[in-house]
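fyi for ur records
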Amino acid sequence: MRVCLMLAVVLALGSAASAVERDRSTAILVSPIHEAQIVRADDGKDHVEYELLVLNVFSEPVTLASVTVLDPAGRELVRIEGGTLAAATQTLFAKTATPVVPASAAVSVDVDLILPPDTAPERVTHRIAYTLKADSELALMVGSLEVDAPEVTINRQPAMVIRPPVLRGRAGLRPPLAASPTSTETFVSR
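which gave:
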């Protein structure tokens, strides 16, 4: 009975996938957590920062193999894989770095796209590859081990600048004796 049910699901997903190539069945769903933000770093380059939420819809773990960031023309801007991908991927609550997406769970992938100044496109898309365990019973249900999504819009507004508080000796606050202009600590007198 279980095999018949799985076969029916595979056929249903397969026929739906053949209708629209882009919507083929996969074990993961991917969406951006927020818009991408451009940050000019001290290395003089623009860092496009954002996170992707990867949801495993299967009842067994999947392993992320690579995340490729593409410009609107489909050219590869960066490919994240191996140890770099493992370090950029973490479980949502425990914050454990891992490329493995547990069964019926989600992880976030931190993307740091480094580009020359003022060259970031208005949006990027992704190609995300993953693997199933070798003896997966659910492999028949998967139309592809690669997901072409999602599109992420890059916010063009300048980043907010946060500076240390200015302490002027008001009641309850006083600056330290040897405060440096880069100090970020707030001192409270009692």
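Residues 1-21, 180-190 have pLDDT under 50 and may be disordered. thats all i got for now
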